[in-house]
Amino acid sequence: MVAARLDPIDRMILSELQADGRMTNVELARRVGISAPPCLRRVRTLEEAGLIRGYHAEINARELGFEVQVFVMVGLDSQAETALSAFENRCRAWPLVRECHMLNGEVDFILKCAAPDLSSFQSFLTGELLTAPNVASVKTSLVIRVAKDEPGVPFDVLEERLNKSA
Amino acid sequence: MVAARLDPIDRMILSELQADGRMTNVELARRVGISAPPCLRRVRTLEEAGLIRGYHAEINARELGFEVQVFVMVGLDSQAETALSAFENRCRAWPLVRECHMLNGEVDFILKCAAPDLSSFQSFLTGELLTAPNVASVKTSLVIRVAKDEPGVPFDVLEERLNKSA
DNA sequence: CCGCGTGCGCAATATTATTGCGAAAACACG
DNA sequence: CGTGTTTTCGCAATAATATTGCGCACGCGG
After folding, report:
1. B64-81 pLDDT, tens per residue?
2. A14–B57 C-beta distance less than 8 A
3. Nearest CA among A14, A7, A5 for reference residue A152
4. Fewest 10 Å CB contacts: which of A32, A36, B66, B166?
């Protein structure tokens, strides 16, 4: 399977599973309007095609003891591919770094970090990040509060687009 | 239930479900070393306590037609609470905005946006965001590539902490 | 040592997942 | 338009899982 075009039922399945990834297949089938066996087959196909990458419980980080969330803008002193991917590999190895995106513009990377408290983030910052090779500039921004945190993609936007082009 | 302290089994459950939210309860029970019924009861308790906020399928946005991911730094011309929460409400209503975090420092908010293509993001930017009340400065950064994108929190960090304090 | 609360596991039942298969729908082509 | 082909469906049967009830073991405070 390369990139079989998705029909409306597939999109509904993705949308439902993005909203509730633990829904039973019976319930999912009911919602998308087909019977359970073909529904399950579609889900398996979507998984194998890589459209569904996995399923995750959304954990309440605060309650669990991760009080601090920080965005970090990082600039390197070299934009050579070796330097870039070396930095990316370091990010993958740092547990506090949850996301690492390479950006265009003046800043090279943005990191989203989670830490139990400010001091543990500080020690990561000074002990690991600031001393990493090629790191030229670092600017951190503490998250004060989270107004919106939706997973994945907006399916309603997708619907609109498809309707227009139809 | 206020904030019952979690025992090691609860933490293992959270960790496993964060990694694979669709694992069967039987498999989960096997991994954490108890039988299925008490395992399910623990999961239900964690859900009701709000430690598990939900479950989500991780969708491959690119394959689905969301080619563009953008971080947007927004500054307002007023930091009055009314202005701040008005802006947050607008973000909640914009489907392209997936995350909205209030930050400390010079920038007031960081948004993570997903869009089908550059032009639809541009039209959102010029038609919605830039014309929204109180928006004083906007700086966008396109995501070139994603090096790491882990959901939730690093449980291994939690373990270390607990071992130290013990 | 005893009573009490908490959490476990077993066993039974209800639901759900999964597979095989024939039939309907979609499609390509003559 | 028919017809062979492919795809996808739904039903029915089976396997596996979720869920509930209940008695037992453990830890704790009299």
Report:
1. 999 999 999 999 999 999
2. yes
3. A14
4. B166
